[in-house]
């Protein structure tokens, strides 16, 4: 139960309180001055709920794709380590240690890069990661000096290539999000709707008992802003703020490299 409540309160923030308060004030003013109107309920679904649900679905699919690509990266990195440890006939080398060190630093930089809000820092870390890819590629060429056949060496080069592709996919997922115009449209309507619907909420006062007149504006505001917050959490799968975020942790990979 505690975990459920913790997850629930993650989607409540200052925006929820502000929009709810403004919605209640708008409804109260409209009722006081007799400004009432019967707006169609269907407008909420067409103008707000459908675009928000579409955005949430798109953000969730991006998160799932990011998980797959990060899994590809980890899988090929671990396979490369196992190859350096088990495929060589001459065991008098430090190839496993070098491979583990490079992969560890790459994952640390990936975590820093994807959680950074500064573009310059982001680009610097990206450059460092590709330098580590270069080192890893050069390291694999030395495997053949320790008894790995040329055919297996070609497979190792493919491992490095697939790690680069997985990383580049993660970068693209991080940079190119769900449609910006759709998100802007949804946010404007979500924040404005509970306020401009004040006349509609005021017209429903007679349908509620005393002290329950503001249930509708509060519920509408809370639900719409909460949906927007859910979409924001899914939109940034690497920021480590939401419960559904992707945790990039080098320790998870290192414990498989023993």
Automatic annotation (TrEMBL):
| Transmembrane annotation, as ranges | 12-36, 42-60, 184-202
Q: Which UniProt keywords apply?
A: Membrane, Transmembrane, Transmembrane helix
The lineage's top-level taxon is Bacteria
Put simply, this protein is called Bestrophin, RFP-TM, chloride channel
In its UniProt entry, the species of origin is given as: Chryseolinea serpens
């Amino acid at each position: 139960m505690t975990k459920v409540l913790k997850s629930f309160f993650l989607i409540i923030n200052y925006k929820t309180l502000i929009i709810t308060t403004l919605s209640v004030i708008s409804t109260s003013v409209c009722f006081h001055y007799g400004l009432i109107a019967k707006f169609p309920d269907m407008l909420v679904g067409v103008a707000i709920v459908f675009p928000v649900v579409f955005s949430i679905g798109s953000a969730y699919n991006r998160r799932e794709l990011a998980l797959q690509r990060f899994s590809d990266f980890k899988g090929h990195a671990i396979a490369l380590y196992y190859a350096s440890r088990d495929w060589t006939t001459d065991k008098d080398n430090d190839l496993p240690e070098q491979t583990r060190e490079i992969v560890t630093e790459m994952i640390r930089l990936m975590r820093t890069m994807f959680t950074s809000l500064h573009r310059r820092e982001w680009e610097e870390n990206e450059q460092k990661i590709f330098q580590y890819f270069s080192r890893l590629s050069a390291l694999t060429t030395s495997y053949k000096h320790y008894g790995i056949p040329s055919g297996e060496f070609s497979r190792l080069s493919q491992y490095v290539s697939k790690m680069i592709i997985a990383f580049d996919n993660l970068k693209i997922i991080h940079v190119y999000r769900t449609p910006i115009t759709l998100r802007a449209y949804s946010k404007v309507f979500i924040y404005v709707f509970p306020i401009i619907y004040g006349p509609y909420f005021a017209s429903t006062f007679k349908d509620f008992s005393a002290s329950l007149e503001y249930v509708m504006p509060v519920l509408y505001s809370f639900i719409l802003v909460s949906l927007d917050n859910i979409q924001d959490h899914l939109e940034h799968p690497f920021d480590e703020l939401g419960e559904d975020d992707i945790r990039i942790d080098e320790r998870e990979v290192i414990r498989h490299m023993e």
